[in-house]
Amino acid sequence: MAWVLLVASGLMEAVWASAIGASQGFRKKGPTVLFVVALVLSMVGLAYAMTAIPTGTAYAVWVGIGAVLTVLYPVARGKEQLTLGRGGLLLVLIGCIIGLKVVG
């Protein structure tokens, strides 16, 4: 259960990271509200997951999931391009996340 919650919290990290960019310095209400809600959900989920998963592993997995999804979101929307280099580095990051789960 903790791992499922950790993955969901990583997803929420990508949501709040994308929302903060869309908020234009907290001037747009919708993205600002989304940022706050996603931030709270992300932190609560991370904190709960850390009761069952070592802090270093949980934090690294949470950050990794958030980072990968935050990069892929604008790619999926056609706003950024996924170059060979970026794609390769994302694959390495995903491999490291999986590795932390396997050894942790």
From TrEMBL:
Keywords: Cell membrane, Membrane, Transmembrane, Transmembrane helix, Transport. The chain crosses the membrane at residues 33-51, 58-76, 82-103. InterPro entries: EmrE-like, Small_drug/metabolite_transptr, Small_multidrug_res. It is found in: Cell membrane. GO terms for cellular component: plasma membrane. It comes from the Bacteria. Coiled coil: none annotated. It is a multi-pass membrane protein. Its main location: membrane. One of its GO terms (molecular function) is transmembrane transporter activity. Belongs to the drug/metabolite transporter (DMT) superfamily. Small multidrug resistance (SMR) (TC 2.A.7.1) family. PANTHER family: GUANIDINIUM EXPORTER, SMR FAMILY PROTON-DEPENDENT DRUG EFFLUX TRANSPORTER SUGE. This is Quaternary ammonium compound-resistance protein SugE. It comes from Marinactinospora thermotolerans DSM 45154. The lineage of its organism: Bacteria, Bacillati, Actinomycetota, Actinomycetes, Streptosporangiales.
